[in-house]
Amino acid sequence: MSRIRTASPKHCANQGVIHVRKLNKRLLCALSTFFLTGLSVVVLVWLILHPSKPQFYLKDADVYQLSLPSPRLLNTTLQFTLVSKNPNARVGVYYDRLRAYASYKGQQITAQAAIPPFYQGHDDSDILSTSLSGAGVPVAASFGYEVGRDQTAGRLPIRLKLEGRVRWKVGTWVSGQYPIVVDCEAVVSFAPGDPSHLLSSSQGSRCSTTV
User: Fold this and answer.
1) Read out DSSP for 72-140?
2) Hey, which of 15, 68, 123, 131 has its CA 20 to 30 A from 38?
3) Domains: count for the chain
C-alpha cells in the first residue's frame, strides 16, 4: 500500500511565502549588481580622466572709487577682468551660481555681483569681466588707518573673490555640483604725488582655486 501525502493549507502558504522571498531576493541581487556595475563604470571613467580644477588668472583690476564718507562707512567702485581656463582635454565644466566681491584686509568692501552661468569646453578659455560697487558698506574703525598706511607705501592690496558651483561633463554624463572658490590679489598703485588717486593694476598673476 502506497502512502499518500496531502499538503495542508498552512504548508501551501509557507511554500508561497518562500517562493516570494526567493523572487524578492533575486530581484534585489539583480538591482544591486546593476547599480554597482554602473557606479564602477562611472568611478573608473572618473579615475582614468582625473579632471583637473579650472585655472584663473587676474588680467587687470581698476579701482575708480575708495572713499570714507564717515569713519565706519565705505563707498567703492571697481572693475576687474579674469581669464578662466579649463585645462582638461576630455572633461567640460559647467559654472553655476557664480558670485564675485572684493575684500581688503579681511573685510568685504563691495556687494556681491552675480555672474551668468556658462559652460567651458575642453581646453577652452573665457574672459570674465564685471563691475563691483558698494555704497555705505560698514567697515571697522581701523579701516581708514590701514588705507592711509598703504597710501604712504604707494600700494593697496585688494582681494577679488569668486564663489559658486561647478559640474563636470564627461560625454553625456554630468556630475553633481561642487563648490568652487577663486581668490586673487590685485595690488593697486597710487598716482605719484597724489596718494588720493588710484591707478589701474595689471597683474597677470595666477589665482588660487579650491574645488
Assistant:
1) TEEEEEEEEEEEEE---SS-EEEEEEEEEEEEETTEE-S--EEE--EEE-TT-EEEEEEEEEEEEEE--
2) 123
3) 2
pLDDT one-digit tens code per residue, 141-178: 888 889 888 888 878 889 999 999 999 998 888 988 99
What gap in Å lies between CA 130 and CA 157, rounded to an integer? 19
Q: Which three cell numbers stand for residue 141?
A: 574703525
The confidence score (pLDDT) of residue 66 equals 85
Write out the residue range of the structural domain in which residue 136 sits: 55-210
Average pLDDT for 129-142: 92
Q: What is the 3-state secondary structure (H, E, C) of 40-52?
A: HHHHHHHHHHCCC
Residues 79 and 168 placed together within one structural domain of the fold: yes
- For residue 137, give the CATH number of its domain: 2.60.40
How do beta strands 178-191 and 155-170 pair?
Answer: antiparallel
If asked whether residues 36 and 126 sit together in one domain, one would say no
Q: What is the pTM of this model?
A: 0.73
Task: Indicate if 142 and 45 belong to the same structural domain.
Answer: no
Please report which confidence band the pLDDT of residue 14 belongs to, taking 50, 70 and 90 as the band edges: low
The one-character DSSP state at 37 is H
